[in-house]
Amino acid sequence: VPELKLAETKLAQAKADMADESYKDARMQAEQAELDARLAEARVLTQKSQEQLNVLNTRITRLRKQLGDAQ
Questions:
Q1: Can you tell me the distance from the alpha carbon of 12 to that of 38, in angstroms, rounded to the nearest whole number?
Q2: Side-chain half-sphere of 69: how many Cα atoms within 13 Å?
Q3: How many CB atoms lie within 10 A of CB 36?
Q4: One digit per residue, pLDDT tens: the chain, 71 residues?
C-alpha cells in the first residue's frame, strides 16, 4: 500500500526534525504520518471486505445454481 510507505517516510522525517529541534515541523510530519497510516489501514480493510464480498457472491451463485438444478 503506497500510503504506508508515505507514512513511514514522514515518520522518519519527523524523527529527523526532532533531532534538529524543529518541533513544529516534527509534529506536522508525525500527524501527517498518522493520517497516511490510517488511510493505508482503511484501504487494506476495504480491499479485504471486497474480497470477502466476492467470495460470498460466488457461493450465492453456486447455491442458486444448485437450487435451480434441483427443481
A1: 17
A2: 6
A3: 21
A4: 899 999 999 999 999 999 999 999 999 999 999 999 999 999 999 999 999 999 999 999 999 999 988 77
Main-chain phi, psi angles of 13, to 5 degrees: -65, -40
Amino acid at 27: R
Q: What is the DSSP string of 24-64?
A: HHHHHHHHHHHHHHHHHHHHHHHHHHHHHHHHHHHHHHHHH
Taking the C-alpha atoms of residue 30 and residue 8, their distance in angstroms, rounded to an integer, is 10
pTM metric for this prediction: 0.76
Assign residue 54 a region (left: φ > 0; alpha: ψ between -120 and 50; beta: otherwise).
alpha
Read off the C-alpha cell for 46. 476495504
Q: Say which residue the cell 474480497 belongs to.
A: 51
